[in-house]
Fold this sequence. Notes:
- About 30% of the residues lie in helices and about 30% in strands.
- The chain contains 7 helices and 13 strands.
- Helix 1 crosses helix 6, helix 3 (about 65-75) packs antiparallel against helix 7 and helix 4 runs antiparallel to helix 5.
- The longest helix has 16 residues, at about 5-20.
- The N and C termini lie far apart (about 40 Å).
Amino acid sequence: MSFPWIRTAASAALIALVTTGCGGSAETAGENKPPVTTPATARAGTPVTPTPTPAAGLESLPVRTIMQKTREASLAATSLRMRGTITDTTGPMTFDITLATGGGSGTFTVAGASYSVRAIGRTVYLQLSESAIRAQAKADKSSPAETAEIVRQLKNKWIKLSKVDKDTQEMVDLVTPGKFFATMFSEDGTATAAPPRKVSARMVDGIRCVGLTDDGAALWIDTSTGRLVRMTEGKNRFSFSDYGKVPAPKAPAKSQVLDGKAMGL
């Protein structure tokens, strides 16, 4: 079988970036097919080393059972941190997201321009870095004077969106653990699809994990908890940490908030 989870997560993150007005279309992102790599190609600085003597744990279970336990552990998560890189035809996008019950936040960076989203319930705030503001002004062919004024108004400010449309809801779902994992596992085929290949336990990001690989994609799963530690597919990388330790975000100070309705947002 193939892993729909990684592709769905990548698509959701790209949709969130597109919603900010920077990046390619969702169709273009979906058509990109990154080159296949092996599970051993971990992100730089975090080697994946085999464990000499595996202890009894999740790795001793059948593949389908591991997949089901991973699904259950993920859906039960109340908070966590997710970081990584997604590469599409426009280049790499890095992201750092905290997911928590009742709200979450995330920052996406492309070509030095950062876009941040903060969701508290159904209230969504959006912030653009100065580089992002200037990039958007350039795309709009604003004059130097106009650009300076836009930067003055938006720098270090949060835009409170006045409506939550379909695209905005994608951003909210991306920073809400239950919704995020429900989307990832919506195509659950653990009972009927051909199982992936199990890889012997090894240390990943300092945690003993068992691997499941298929069609260039890999999941690394904590052998003691069943939680996801890392997902990879081609150049796409997701790492998961700080389960149960991430606090829900707080609303920005009123002095930092701009009314999105006046901007048509």
